[in-house]
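Issue 218. Parser rejects a valid record. Input:
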Amino acid sequence: MVEERALEEMLRAASLRVTRPRVAVLAAVNSHPHADADTIIGAVRVVLGSVSKQAVYDVLAALVEADLVRRIEPSGSPARFETRVGDNHHHVVCRSCGNIADVDCAVGEAPCLHASNSHGFVIDEAEVIYWGSCPDCATKRLVNQQNLTTTRSDK
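Output the parser choked on:
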């Protein structure tokens, strides 16, 4: 857990004014990696009491703009936020429960991957999302398949 003083210094270093909502949102994102906005709002309300959804969305936007927070948007999922920025890492997403985990860069440094045709773009980042089943969901699926097989063979 990052101390409040360190969070304040991060805000100052990004030329952002230090406010209670900004510190609370940054702390919530840091404590809940890959959380959606509703989860962050809930965590901020525990600390600050009453705070509007719009205020949290505004702070998230400012933190993303300042590169203190990264916004990821896996297909079929609301936007998620994390404080791990600047290293061009990737993510793995469970198709069943939506759990998300970090995956370090596939090869070397950013952008990790090289496009077959850059179309003249100067590429500085690659975003990869791996999809599959987390260990818990894979185990549940295996157990369900075994139960189904046992049930069929009992008939």
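Fixed in the parser; the record now loads. The CA atoms of residues 8 and 18 lie 6 Å apart.
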